[in-house]
Specification:
The chain is α+β, with helices and mostly antiparallel strands. The protein has 4 domains: 86 residues, no CATH class; 88 residues, PAS domain (Beta-Lactamase), CATH 3.30.450.20; 69 residues, Helix Hairpins, CATH 1.10.287; 153 residues, Histidine kinase-like ATPase, C-terminal domain (Heat Shock Protein 90), CATH 3.30.565.10. Helices cover 53% and strands 17% of the residues. The strands form 3 sheets. Strands 2-1-5-4-3 form a 5-stranded antiparallel β-sheet, sandwiched between helices. Strands 7-9-10-12-11 form a 5-stranded mixed β-sheet, covered by helices on one side. It is elongated and about 160 Å long. The N and C termini lie far apart (115 Å). The structure holds adenosine-5'-diphosphate. Adenosine-5'-diphosphate binds next to helix 10 and helix 12.
Length: 447
């Protein structure tokens, strides 16, 4: 205790000085013992008063939460203020670390792709991140302290909160009904609750699409299989003439071809979805592509239509030759199938001023009503189901076209008018188009 000695010494010194002065005055007044006592008391009182003043300054400083520098009082007060100051600084540092940790923690929750809502023991909103505010349509400041079930009134959520069985998430619609949310409630602490929300709109949509897809495929397969089973039974049970037998066999062949086409289209779609994007450095000759498309189109039309190709030579597209052939081939096949005999089909290839390429397949066939156009590329979407099936359609052609075009970074644009005809346009981005100027200028005269 190094501070105690000087302090004792100070008190003794003050008392002694008081006694000395008191003795002097006492000698003069003739009451030496009394004056010595008074002098000693005054000396002690002086040092105590000095101490009290110092204590007061230290107290004032402490009352001000130790702000500013500590008063320099010397002796034990210096030691005390130094120790206090150290404690206060340590506390400040711990507080600021704590605050920083809390702020980082809240920032991390804010950055979460999921909504986070904290409820107090009464089920009132204590805090929520921006995602939760967006999911539930809350105002993080205004709605603080509000009972959560007053604001989130979806019956499934209210029932979930009332039941208090939080072992599974609950699915609820978002505030405007545009989203579907999966909400998980986790109790913690003393009656507090953590509410986590996740937007599962996309997941629900793709689940629904998958279910529809399976239902559609099953339906598409069942029809030809039922027909085939009927024919097999007919052949097995009825004595048929040779003419009838031939007819039944032809019809059976039609059904198997239909199933084969469907399976081929399904496999094409599966491959398109599962394989990497087509290369950007493998160049496909548009001339060769169009020659193949023309041969296939003419074989399908069998002279019932006029097919005119407008293809300036030398064009090249970077990508997959098989995919591009499948896309343009599908468009020309459709044009043939949906254009009555005697109609005309024009196929154009051109490079635009901005360097992008355009392939147009134009027909003057049956055309399509405006309301169907946005849905044409959906799988199994058909405007006229019987015509599609009668002409060997699977309802997957335009989905394949759209996939191929998107995989090449392009766009599919459809214009059509019922009774007048249609124009399907594939736009290929500039980066995937080039023209070989030394290409042999093959005249591509209309036939
Ligand atoms: P489908 O095998 O039924 O032809 P697609 O996906 O190729 O399937 O086309 C979807 C629907 O779009 C068709 O059922 C048809 O109604 C319509 N369609 C496609 N191409 C044309 C066209 N050139 N003219 C008129 N309708 C078309």
């Amino acid at each position: 205790m190094p501070w105690l000695l000087p302090r004792l010494a100070g008190s003794v010194l003050a008392t002694w000085a008081g006694m000395v002065v008191g003795a002097e005055v006492g000698d003069w007044l003739g009451w030496p013992a009394l004056c010595m006592g008074i002098g000693a008391a005054l000396g002690l009182a002086a040092i105590t008063t000095l101490d009290a003043l110092r204590a007061r300054r230290v107290l004032d400083w402490l009352r001000g939460a130790g702000q500013g520098s500590a008063p320099a009082e010397g002796g034990v007060w210096s030691e005390l203020t130094y120790r206090f100051e150290r404690l206060l600084r340590a506390r400040d540092r711990a507080l600021s670390d704590e605050r920083q940790r809390l702020s980082q923690f809240l920032q991390a929750i804010e950055a979460s792709p999921n909504g986070v809502l904290l409820l107090d023991a009464e089920g009132q909103i204590d805090w929520c991140n921006a995602v939760a505010a967006d999911h539930f349509g809350l105002d993080p400041v205004r709605d603080r302290g509000q009972r959560v079930t007053n604001l989130l009134r979806a019956p499934a959520f209210v029932a979930h909160m009332q039941q208090g069985q939080f072992d599974h998430p609950v699915t609820v619609p978002g505030p405007l009904g545009r989203h579907t949310l999966s909400v998980t409630v986790r109790p913690y602490g003393d009656g507090l609750k953590l509410v986590l929300s996740q937007d599962i709109t996309e997941r629900e949509r793709s689940d629904a699409m998958r279910r529809d897809f399976v239902a559609n495929v099953s339906h598409e397969m069942r029809t030809p299989l039922t027909v085939l089973a009927g024919f097999v039974e007919t052949m097995a049970t009825l004595p048929l003439t040779e003419v009838e037998r031939q007819r039944v066999l032809r019809l059976m062949e039609q059904q198997t071809t239909r199933m084969q086409t469907l399976l081929t289209d399904l496999l094409t779609l599966a491959q398109l979805e599962g394989s990497p994007r087509p290369p950007a450095d493998q160049w496909v000759s548009v001339d060769a592509l169009m020659a193949q498309v023309r041969a296939d189109g003419e074989a399908l039309s069998a002279g019932r239509h006029r097919l005119v190709f407008h293809v300036p030579p030398g064009g090249e597209i970077a990508g997959s030759a098989t995919e591009l052939l499948s896309a343009v081939g599908n468009l020309v096949t459709n044009a043939v199938r949906y254009t009555p005999d005697g109609g005309q089909i024009d196929v154009h290839w051109r490079v635009r001023a901005d360097g992008a390429g355009e392939i147009d397949v134009v027909d003057n066939g049956v055309g399509i009503d405006r309301e169907h156009i946005p849905r044409l590329t959906e799988r199994f979407y058909r405007v006229d189901g019987s015509r599609s099936r009668d002409t060997g359609g699977t309802g997957l052609g335009l989905s394949i076209v759209k996939h191929v075009v998107q995989r090449h970074g392009g766009e599919l644009d459809i214009e059509s008018e019922r009774g007048k005809g249609s124009r399907f346009r594939i736009v290929v981005p500039t980066a995937r188009v080039r023209v070989r100027h030394n290409a042999a200028a093959v005249a591509d005269a209309p036939r």
